[in-house]
Automatic annotation (TrEMBL):
It comes from Psychroflexus halocasei. It catalyses: a 2'-deoxycytidine in DNA + S-adenosyl-L-methionine = a 5-methyl-2'-deoxycytidine in DNA + S-adenosyl-L-homocysteine + H(+). Residues 6-51 form the HTH merR-type domain. This is Cytosine-specific methyltransferase. Belongs to the class I-like SAM-binding methyltransferase superfamily. C5-methyltransferase family. The keyword Cytoplasm does not apply. Its EC number is 2.1.1.37. One of its GO terms (biological process) is methylation.
Amino acid sequence: MKDYLTLAETSEIIGKSKETLRRWDKEGILNAVREPVSNYRVYRKSDVQTLLGNLFDEIVEDDVSNHVKPENEYSILELFAGAGGLAIGLEEAGLKCAALNEIDKWACQTLRNNRPNWNVLEGDIKNFDFSKFKNKVDIVTGGFPCQAFSYAGKKLGLKDARGTLFYEFARAVQEVNPAICIGENVRGLLSHDNGKTLKGMISILDEIGYKVAPPQVLKAINFRVPQKRERLILVGIRKDIDIEYKYPKPHRKIYNLKDALKKSELYNCDVPQSKGSKYPEHKKEVLDLVPPKGYWRDLPLDIQKDYMGKSFYLGGGKTGMARRIGWDEPSLTLTCSPAQKQTERCHPDETRPFTVREYARIQTFPDDWEFAGSISQQYKQIGNAVPVNLAEEIGYSIIKVLNEYYVKK
Ligand SMILES: C[S@@+](CC[C@H](N)C(=O)[O-])C[C@H]1O[C@@H](n2cnc3c(N)ncnc32)[C@H](O)[C@@H]1O
C-alpha cells in the first residue's frame, strides 16, 4: 500500500483544489513532506485520512467567494428543466430565464406555480423549434439524459446523434446560437461507452461552433450543498469568443445534515413540517437497528444475510444499503425515490425517510419552492435536480465570461 499521495491525488480525494492544498500547507492545516526516494513534495496518506475525518465537523472559516454581479441582463434557455433546480440557482446568481422546456407535466406545473411569469414550454423537446430565440438568449443549458450513440468510427457529427436527447440539446444550441452552452450530467457520462459518448458530444459541439472546456465533475459539498452529490459539467463557448472558461472555486466550508435541517448559515429556521413516505414495516424493523452513520454492516449477521439477500454474497461495499445519515455529515446523494432498496437514507433520529421538505433542503431548494403532484412525483422532481446552490455557483462562473465578453465586444 502506498504511504504517500501526490498533490493531484490528495486534491482528488479531499475535493479541494491544488491551490487550496498549497495554501493549507503554508497555514499548517495539511503539511506536505519530501518523498524519500524522489524528493517530490507529497502528502502522508495518514495525514490526509485524519484531515478527511475532521473535515466534516470542523468549523472552517470560508473565505472563498465566486460571487460576481452581471453587468448586463443575461438570459437563459433552460432545456430538460425538471422542477427548476438549475434554473433557480442561475436566477439566484442574477441570470434571467427566457424560456424553459420540460416534458413532465408535474414538473411544468411546479415551474408555473412558483414562477407564473416564466415561459414554460411543456412537451417533448423534439417538437420545439427554438429558432425564435436566435441571438436573443446568452446561454442554453440542459441536463439531457445520457444515451449511447451508435458510433460508426471516426469523428461523430451532429446528424449521427439523431434520435438521442443530446442531439436535441445540440440542435437547440445550433438554432439559438448563444454565447455559452452548458450541459450537465452524472459522473457516469465520463466512462459511458468507454468515454466515447462524451468524446462524441464534445466533437458535435465543436462541429456546431463551440469550444468545450475540459469537462469537470463538481462535488456539490464544495459548493454550499450538504450532500455528496456530483455533477459533470460540460461548458461550450462560441468559437468567436476568445475567453477561457474557469470553473467556480470550491468553498472551504462543508455543510452537513444539521445545517440542512436546523437553523444554520444555510437556513434561518428549522425545516418546515411536511409529508413524506414511510418505510414498510419489515424495513423499519431492520433500520431501527442501524445507528447514525451506520449501514447494513452494523446489523447482526443473520439480519444482514436476510436483508441483503443475494447482494450479501456479491461483495463490494454497498455503503448506501440500510444507511442512516448522521447529523454531522453531509447526506449521501438523494435519489428519485427515498425508500428504495440499495439507497436508503434514513433520518438520524427517527426511522423514516426524509420528508419532502427535508429532501428539498438537502438539495438547497428554498422553503417556499413548492412541488406539484403526488408525493412520489415531488420526490422524483427533487431527486432529479441540480442542487440550487451548486447551480448558483455555476451561474457566477458564466456571468464572469459574459461580463468579459460584453466589455470586449
Ligand atoms: C435530470 S432532470 C433535469 C433536472 C433539472 N435540470 C433541475 O435542475 O431540476 C432531466 C429532465 O429531462 C426531462 N426530459 C426527459 N426527456 C425529455 C424530452 N424528450 N423532452 C423534454 N424534457 C425531457 C425529464 O422529465 C427530467 O425532468
